[in-house]
Design a protein that fits this description.
The protein has 302 residues and is mainly α. Helix content is 74%, strand content 0%. It is globular and about 50 Å long. The termini are far apart.
Length: 302
């Protein structure tokens, strides 16, 4: 698949998972829901490798990096994010998620010694402005209390670990590790960390009774984890973790479109303008909209 097609798959699926995640709250502790989600996803990937006779044997140093990716990208990122959404509006999460692109750019430079691409930084700035305009009316509902700050801290920390996991994954993939096998091992290691954390915290294990919980879990595991993460890691491998991270600025638009259909979201002028700005930023970040070259001229007089 082309990069554009992979990008579209990730955006469409992750945009819809925002709605599916809401059915995970209530009966079961978020850390258990995250663990179940990636356990099922890892099982599906493992069975796929078994029937397709794909070797899961990889060098030990690659396993160490995949374990780090699993800890950051699946365990810490999703556990903290699920917890944050219990304290803050999804609007704040959407705006804060835009910082992932900047964090990716910096970590990519520090850890992988790769250049900071101007088009990505400028495109991300457009994206952040657009996302802010889209969710502008929601900020009137914010109540400044200690729960708000807890939620913001949890969300920002989750995005930091997501970015770190992206960069580690890029290092693993650029050494030739197949995407499917990497996702299987990273998710498996992530599940171990998640379940160990649940045991240490003494989290109560409950069996959900809502059919919506199981249906949403199936969707999040198969589509949100197996398919979307497979496409996303392919993007990371082909484009780099900095450009790939721009999906976090586009899939909230899909979430809003679904919210319009299922939740009666009312569009406003700022949101329409914001969508346009996000799409322009995407075009810049992906190199579809060329930036003027900066030239420095020096005049010597005397």
């Amino acid at each position: 698949m082309s990069n554009s097609s992979l990008f579209a798959v990730v955006v469409l699926i992750w945009g819809s998972t925002w709605l599916a995640i809401t059915f995970q709250f209530g009966e079961v502790d978020p850390i258990i829901s995250v663990g179940l989600r990636f356990t099922l996803a890892a099982l599906i990937l493992g069975l796929f490798c078994f029937f397709k006779k794909l070797s899961l044997h990889l060098p030990s140093h690659v396993h160490f990096k995949m374990a780090a990716a699993g800890l950051c990208l699946y365990a810490l990122d999703y556990t903290l994010l699920y917890h944050s959404q219990q304290y803050i509006l999804s609007a704040i999460v959407a705006v804060m998620s835009s910082c992932m692109v900047y964090i990716n750019v910096v970590l990519r430079r520090v850890l992988l010694k790769k250049p900071m691409r101007r088009e990505v930084v400028i495109g991300a700035s457009f994206g952040m402005l657009g996302i802010t305009l889209i969710f502008l009316p929601e900020f009137a509902k914010i109540k400044a209390d200690h729960l708000l700050f807890i939620g913001i801290a949890l969300a920002f920390t989750s995005f930091f670990f997501a970015s770190l996991g992206n960069v580690v994954s890029e290092r693993v993939l650029e050494h030739g590790t197949p995407v499917i096998q990497m996702n299987f091992w990273a998710m498996s290691y992530g599940v171990v960390f998640i379940l160990a954390c649940a045991l240490l915290q003494g989290v109560e294990w409950r069996i959900p009774t809502s059919p919506a919980y199981y249906l949403s879990m199936l969707y999040l595991s198969v589509f949100g984890s197996v398919l979307a993460f497979g496409a996303y890691m392919k993007l990371v491998k082909q484009m780099g973790s900095d450009k790939s991270a721009y999906v976090v600025l586009v899939y909230p638009i899909v979430a809003l479109l679904l919210s319009t259909v299922f939740e009666g979201y009312q569009w406003h002028l700022e949101a329409i303008i914001g969508v346009g700005i996000v799409l322009v930023g995407n075009g810049i970040a992906m190199g579809k909209i060329p930036l003027p070259r900066l030239t420095i001229s020096t005049n010597h007089q005397g």
